[in-house]
Amino acid sequence: MSKSLFRRKSISTILKDAREGATDGHGTGTLHRVLKVKDLTAMGIAAVIGAGIFSTIGEASFHGGPGVSILFVITAITCGFSALCYAEFASRVPVSGSAYTYSYVTFGELTAWIIGWSLILEYAIGNIAVAISWSGYFNNLLAGIGMGLPGWLTSNYDNASPETLAAAPHIAGLPVILNLPAFLVVVFITWLAYVGIQESKRSANAMVAFKILIIIFVIVLGAFYVNTDNWNPFLPNGFSGVLRGVSAVFFAYIGFDAVSTTAEECTNPQRDLPRGMFYSLIICTVLYVLIALVLTGMVPFTDLKVADPLAFVFDAVNLRWISYIISISAVIATTSVLLVFQIGQPRIWMSMSRDGLLPGRFSRIHPRFKTPSFATIVTGILVGVPALFLNLTIVTDLTSIGTLFAFILVCGGVLLLPREENNGNTSRFRLPYINGQWIVPALVVLGIFLFRAPLGEKLSFAGGWEVWKHNIPFFFFTIVVIVITVLSFLRKLSLIPVLGLLSCFYLMTEMGLKNWIVFAVWLLTGLVIYFGYSYRNSKLNAAN
Q: Which GO terms of the molecular function aspect are on file (predicted)?
């Protein structure tokens, strides 16, 4: 049974399945190949420049001060290592499915299922939080012109005030509390994703162009009001203070991998997918760093623990009219994030369905629109209904830990890919091989020397169990570092995937023990579904 749990699909089989579509009677063709480099870059920017630049950046700046700009660079480098590994996979396995498909090729079926299940955290559940955030921006925008909706239509039972509960209509004695804007925007985005990738890319391109113009305008205008004294000290709470914002900052970056789910809709995926990911990552990092410097320069960082930091800093310099422009941009930015994630999730389910791990309907391609129609509708329901009733804005850490887990498996998977000789295909991206035999051990020794004091605190049992238990994730990270260092020396592992794996694992340790426990429960739930349905219905199982 252990062999069957880790049975792998060959690249040739995956490419064949993608060309033919689902082979169980549910598939009706292939997807439209219409995406080019500019479209993929726009989709990456659409996914990354969202609520993070309008809200969570304030919390991160409050903890890290002006030095939070360094955190954006560190996170971008971490994502850059992962992006290089994604690019290698995307050029070798140019099909939908993202990390799920890549894991199926290298680690086997059980790991592929686990990563597919964890990606639901990134896409579906993360989108609930984005939809709720969009509702807040939208209602603030309406309130600015005197058309705000009543509280019972923009709230939920978790955070409704006593006044809202009293004002709400009652059915059978129970107050009716709905987040109607969140639900309606999910319905609209689901419809857009359903009717075609062509329409979706045009919408994404337009939204990205608008919000980049607004962000550049805000940066340029804000630069005139920067007081450089606010940048001193640059690291007021030390490097540990900067790292306290890692969850919020990483949550802003997680969308770039959604680009890889559109591989079957690219005109030249082997060349264009890597470029789209890299271009979007670079552009977004530059914008985030500039925004962080402007925010912390306009007001003291201690004032930035607010829900809408961009509007707040301009109010502080008596430019209140900017708030309305920022509100419009925030609505458009979060709409684009919703669109990209609502495109990505159905394509992962489509790939899982092709392999028999989900029912065949999930791989159904609409004969006219050439989209995974059933999977798109299910995604809309799973996001829209909870957004209508629940408050899931607290899932930032949980979403980030699921994404980091996917990045780790992609980086690790590249290490398992057989090296491919250059056969003359110069358009395909190739991850450069850098021998990590001596570099990885040297970097580990250097890291131990530079951070020996905090390392000693994390690995010490001096504070007792109540203190040390929060360092359990770091303890596992230490074990992984030792194992990877030894393997790098013995097997001459490629440096870039190793750095990507270790940096992502380290960021996971900053998420907190509670998030690891919830994530573990989520994975165990996925295993129950796998052994109850997917293991028996797997096409590889039928073939064997």
A: amino acid transmembrane transporter activity
Cα radius of gyration rounded to whole Å, the chain: 23
- Determine contact, residues 66/245, Cβ cutoff 8 Å: no
Could you tell me which of 331, 278, 328, 348 has the C-alpha nearest to residue 88?
278
d(CA 491, CA 497): 14
Q: How far apart are CA 239 and CA 246, in angstroms?
A: 11
- Please tell me the distance from the alpha carbon of residue 299 to that of residue 302, in angstroms, as a whole number: 8
Instruction: Give the torsion through C-alpha atoms of 22, 24, 27, 29, to 10 deg.
Output: 70
Residue with tokens 């592992």: 493
| pLDDT (tens digit per residue) in 127-177 | 888 888 888 788 878 877 777 788 888 877 777 777 777 788 888 778 888
Question: Which domains does the chain possess?
Answer: 2-414+494-543 (1.20.1740.10)
Per the omega criterion (within 30 degrees of 0), is the bond before 94 cis?
no
428 φ/ψ angles, rounded to the nearest 5 degrees = -85, 135
Three-class secondary structure assignment of 286-351:
HHHHHHHHHHHHHCCHHHCCCCCHHHHHHHHCCCCHHHHHHHHHHHHHHHHHHHHHHHHHHHHHHH
Query: Structure pTM?
Result: 0.84
Tokens 């790939």, located at residue: 351
Q: Which of 16, 22, 412, 87 is closest to 259 using CA atoms?
A: 87
- Confidence bin at 426 (pLDDT 50/70/90): low
The pLDDT of residue 544? 64
Beta carbons of 252 and 50 less than 8 angstroms apart? yes
- 227: its two tokens: 């007081």
